[in-house]
From TrEMBL:
Domain N-acetyltransferase residues, every copy: 1-127
Organism for this UniProt entry: Photobacterium lutimaris
Molecular function terms, GO-annotated: acyltransferase activity, transferring groups other than amino-acyl groups
Protein name, UniProt field: GNAT family N-acetyltransferase
Keyword terms of this UniProt record: Transferase
Length: 148
């Protein structure tokens, strides 16, 4: 497995994220007010995840691992690297059904729609109306021992 370095995206490198999305996940588009974590190697960005900030919670969105690096543990490693981000403010995500197990293995638990804050209930309903099969999840804090 190729070792990636994980860190917050430097603001000057913001255009690289949207180029990365355009190449591998055209529906994804980063916004400058999001917190963005990346995993990179000598060839560039290989993984990223964004956190949309709300007043009392955040939404993990747009997680992407380069197709050549999938199923190698990079997604899990990225989420472990940004554990402080996940635990500082309550974090929700909308998992595609085929990724539920991945997110559960990374500390998220499935919740009911009515357990989401109202703005996220509206958002997940809009996404579903566009044909996406999504499961609402919430990050359940894990101790550092569990991450080791």
């Amino acid at each position: 497995m190729i070792k990636l370095r994980f860190h917050l995206l430097e603001p000057l490198r913001f255009p690289l994220i949207n180029r990365f999305y355009k190449s591998y996940y055209p529906a994804g588009k980063a916004k400058k007010d999001e917190v963005i974590w990346i995993g990179e190697d000598s060839k560039g960005i290989q993984a990223c995840v964004r956190f949309k900030q709300f007043d009392e919670y955040q939404l993990l969105t747009g997680m992407l691992v380069h197709p050549d690096h999938r199923s190698q543990g990079h997604g899990i490693a990225l989420l472990e690297a940004c554990n402080d981000q996940l635990t500082t403010t309550q974090c929700y995500c909308f998992a595609f059904s085929h990724l539920e197990t991945f997110y559960q293995g990374s500390g998220f638990v499935i919740i009911k729609d009515n357990e989401l804050p109202e703005p996220l209930q509206s958002r997940i309903n809009r996404y579903r109306q566009s044909g996406k099969t999504l499961t609402p999840m919430i990050y359940a804090q894990r101790s550092k021992l569990e991450l080791s």
